[in-house]
Amino acid sequence: LPYALLSEDGRIIWMNQQFMKITDKGPAYSRSISTIFPQIGRTLLPNEENPHTETELVFGPADYRVDMKLITLEERIESSHLVSALEFEGSLIAVYLFDVTEINRYIRENQEQRMVAGLVYIDNYDEVLENVEEVRASLLVALIERKINKYFNAYDGIVRKLEKDRFFVVMQEKAPAQVRENKFSLLQDIKTVNNVSCRAIAVGDIMDATDAEAEEYFKEVCKDMLSTKVSSMYQNAPEFEEFRQLSSAYLNKYISSVVPEWDGINMSLIYNLGYIGFFNLGYPAYDMFYMYGTDDFNDFFNLAFDHSVEEVEEMYGEYPKVMVKYNSVKDAFISVGYVF
Q1: Helix, strand or coil, per DSSP, at residue 12
Q2: Which of these, 59, 172, 189, 302, has the minimum number of CB atoms within 10 Å of its CB?
Q3: What is the pTM of this model?
Q4: How far, in Å, CA of 236 to CA of 228, rounded?
Q5: What residue spans of 30-133 are helical by DSSP H?
Q6: Residue 238 pLDDT greater than 70, yes or no
């Protein structure tokens, strides 16, 4: 058993071999015990009013219970060979170290294996499905349920569906801490539409799909939701007024009639006019701006959905009219809850 004797102020007077081995200190070490165990300060040392104290601490790879006892004069006389050899005056403090690593591990395991319960809600469930085609909606529902089950099964949890948008979850007590430690990975890669979290659901959960195919399906579903809302905004919302004006200025016109130097290659010529696409009719003289504003809108919708804000800024930042249109679409995305 690791054992040491201290002065009343906590200075080390003597240590046995086990104590020296644990602390990696030699027999001549005579500094305060707090230089080895900072947790043991003066207030924790025993005294006449409180002759027995104890605490727990971690030292190296092990957990220890530290038991400290004030040795009175009568007790020192019984071991006077130590006292006389050290010519020590006053009380001593005996320190015992008990290795409780295994005990604490079993206690933690027992606590972690206790069961806890919780509820998982899917916000605005009906509203999301209204924006998805009927065929895709049923598959999306199945995928969401499958993903929730798979996610909590990874933490040895049990999931039961209570209602269409509510799930009851039972798991071990250690699982919630692991979920938080992983930063709620179920919510990673979120794209939020109309305040509804639509995760990149792994199609591979119910069909043999690659990660790339699963991600592509997520984009398709999310794009459908956004398209339904933002397209209607483009037609009438005042936020798109400047977009519509810039677009209509050149609709159904030959590009060469507006930009005589058009060669079918130098895209900066149409970027300056706020367009990022056109009808390629195989010969520059016949190339046209779009016939309908919705075609122009679709170009910017895809730009906003497929590229990050930084990427768009890098590609088109020097073209003010392009950025005006892009920002109109980006702001519309944000207004319905989409998170870039």
Answers
A1: strand
A2: 189
A3: 0.46
A4: 14
A5: 73-78, 80-86, 101-112, 125-130
A6: yes
